Amino acid sequence: MTNIQDVAKLAKVAPITVSRVINNSGYVSDKTRKRVEGAIAELGYVPNMLGPSLRFKQTMSIAAMVTDITNPFWTTVTRGIEDVASANGYLTILCNSDESEEKQALYLETLLQRQIDGILLVPASNDSASIKRILNQKIPLVVLDREVQNVAVDVVRADSQEGAYLLTKHLLALGHRHIAMLAGPKSTSTSVDRVTGYLHALEEAGIEPNDDLIYWDAYTQEAGYRNAKRVINSALCPTAIFAANNFIAIGTIQALKDQELCVPDDMSIVAVDDIPPTYSLEPFLTVAAQPAKEMGRVAAELLLDRIKNEEDKPPQSIILDITMIIRSSSGKNLKR
Question: Domain 4-45 maps to which CATH number in 3.10.20.30, 3.40.309.10, 3.40.50.720, 1.10.260.40?
Fold first, then answer.
């Protein structure tokens, strides 16, 4: 990891001068300050905000950055992470990116400054810049739920493509031929994987995919509601909706309810990720359920192994199975 001495050497100043620039204390000429700041930027140096006493010690803390902790899927994932971390004497710091690259970058900079021991990250997009930033600082990192191209890093995720394929096959077996796909953002690998699985099932059944039946948007209830209304008014007359996650499904169900449409008689629904019983008096949604707590547990164990063992092992890609649970939200196509 780059240290203050490296910055001082490149800037051709004493380490105390670098310290003054970082802490904005003591006199430093504008010319020297610019030279030091240039060296910091060139080396990608992250100041240690915890003080020199912790420079060579672990902070016994890890960070879990998810997209939205209000989503019960991520609540359960972080519970798995915290259980493992706590059992090993580590504190877990929780951050929400809200699928924002800017917010993610801000959090990461703060975490790096505080010399976090390791990071569990759900990338806000497929862009690998933030991941490379962490790896360049030699901070152990495990990517959760998603894949990122062109970077070698540990990944723990579920098989989204297979889950989407199985759900679509299920709807096809019930006689549905016009299935609307309410996808997440194009910039996330899970969304792309789920659309890929959906398309694979359609093509295997000899059905020509229709781009007008795919609605790319956010992984939110608002997006689910908005696009379900578009589906209801579509001239293509879909008889089933595939919600790419549980929040999209909740928004979809509300939109159908507001239009006085019945599930599954008027519209069948399936989704990736389950809805907890607290959201409904009776579980009824057909889902491809990801093992959320196991995902968090496995990822945390892998991260702690990286922290405790300094040997340079090749990155691991751990793919967990998805379980399809068939309930009453998916019924036979009655409009044939």
Answer: 1.10.260.40
Same fold yes or no, 4-45 and 53-158+292-320 = no
Mean pLDDT for the chain overall = 91
CA 89 to chain CA centroid, Å, is 25
pTM for the complete prediction? 0.81
What was the pLDDT predicted at 226?
98
Residue 83 contacts by C-beta under 8 Å, 6 or more apart in sequence? 296, 297, 300
Please say whether the beta carbons of 323 and 165 come within 8 A: no
275, 263 contact by CB (below 8 A): no
CA distance 324 to 328: 13
Q: How many CB atoms lie within 10 A of CB 216?
A: 18
- DSSP conformation class of 279: G
Q: Can you list the alpha helix ranges (DSSP code H) found in the chain?
A: 4-11, 15-23, 30-43, 72-87, 101-113, 129-136, 160-173, 189-204, 221-232, 246-258, 292-308
Q: For residues 241 and 226, is the Cβ–Cβ distance under 8 A?
A: no
Class of the CATH domain delimited by 160-290: alpha beta
Half-sphere exposure of 299 (CA within 13 A, CB side): 36
Which residue ranges of the chain lie beneath pLDDT 50? 52-56
Q: Could you identify the residue written with the tokens 């016009």?
A: 178
Beta-strand pair 214-216/323-325: unpaired
pLDDT at 52: 45
The amino acid occupying position 295 is M
Question: Which of 232, 279, 224, 271 is closest to 252 using CA atoms?
Answer: 224
- Give the per-residue pLDDT at 280: 65
- Residues 88 and 42: their CA atoms lie apart, in Å, by 37
* Two structure tokens written together for 323: 């379980």
| Both structure tokens of 305 | 């192994």
